[in-house]
Amino acid sequence: MLPMHRLERPLRPTNGTDDEEAPARASRGIQSVEVGGQLLKALARAGTALPLKDLARAAGMTPAKAHPYLVSFGKIGLIEQDPVSGHYGLGPLALQLGLIGLQQVDPVRLSVAELPALAQAVGCTVSAAVWGPVGPIIVHVEHGPTPVHVAMRHGTPASLRHTGTGKIFAAFAPAAAVAEALAREGEADALRDAAFRRELEAIRHERLSRVRDELLPGISAMAVPVFDGFGRLALAIAAIGPSALLDLGADSAQAVTLKDTAQRLSQRLGARGD
Questions:
Q1: Contacts with 226 (C-beta within 8 Å, 6 or more apart), sequence order
Q2: Might you name a Gene Ontology BP term for this protein (predicted)?
Q3: What predicted TM-score, i.e. pTM, was given to this entire model?
Q4: 178-200 pLDDT, tens per residue?
Q5: Spatial separation of the C-alpha atoms in residues 196 and 188, rounded to whole Å
Q6: Do 117 and 168 sit in the same domain of this protein?
Q7: What is the pLDDT of residues 8-33, one digit of tens each?
Q8: Cα(169)–Cα(161) distance, rounded to whole angstroms?
């Protein structure tokens, strides 16, 4: 006869399910895949092929532990080893997956999904803009808690010389396209203006453009770039509001929120973290 304390334990269902453990079982992963994935992440961060010792260190493991993962990844094409240097880099399957991922991502759709929360976080109207046939075009506007009386709507062009959004494109878009668009705006000599060139250099350095009372008195704006996986400017997101309520400091809470959103979108589009 079994001891009584053995019989006091509740019997489990015999139908192969356990309601209490179902969520945990559904979310359980394969640890070895997650561990090996650190090697792929390390290569992506490095942006170049690495010797085994350096790659293992970057992934937080020993060379002896890393090597079997690399062999398996090599067999399926995620990683390949250079026959001359012996360095490990991303393989053809990893490159194919990356290209397919970039093709499937819509930067406008991703940015539009971020704008409602961004408007509340910065406390003013925000927008997203892309490069259109004749220059920067606003493709979405999300009004924030503070009204701003600016004639801005979907399809509105953004001046390359006088708006925060436009200056992001002037700083990061191809120079020939920028020069042509400036000429259409009647600003053909803008790129020969030393002050404007210095402003664009500062924007490239800070990845932030700032405009105070430039087009309309009492209205200011900040804008930040979003890049794709090829390092190209994909779009610009901006915050527009009363000058008294928009802190244009590069380290202000509003500027940091904008930059964080842009970085998150850039990473979603395949851009590197740096």
A1: 107, 111, 233, 234, 235, 236, 237, 262, 265, 266, 269
A2: negative regulation of DNA-templated transcription
A3: 0.66
A4: 999 999 899 999 999 999 999 99
A5: 12
A6: yes
A7: 444 444 444 444 444 445 567 788 88
A8: 10
Domains contained in the chain, number = 2
Contact in structure between 148 and 241 (CB atoms under 8 Å): yes
Q: Are 129 and 139 in contact (CB under 8 A)?
A: yes
Q: Which tokens belong to 158?
A: 């953004």
Are 85 and 111 within one domain? no
* Residue where the block lists tokens 């509740």: 10
| Token pair of 223 as six digits | 């804008």
Place of tokens 């932030």: 208
Residues 158 and 205 in one domain: yes
Amino acid making up residue 51: P
Select from 122, 136, 242, 233 the least CA-distant residue to 184.
136
User: The domain spanning residue 113 has which CATH number?
Assistant: 3.30.450.40
- Residues 32-69 as b/e (b if ≥16 CB within 10 A, e otherwise) read eeeebebbbebbeeeeebbebeebbebbebeeeebeeb
The encoded tokens of residue 216 equal 């309309």
Residue 24 lies in a domain: no
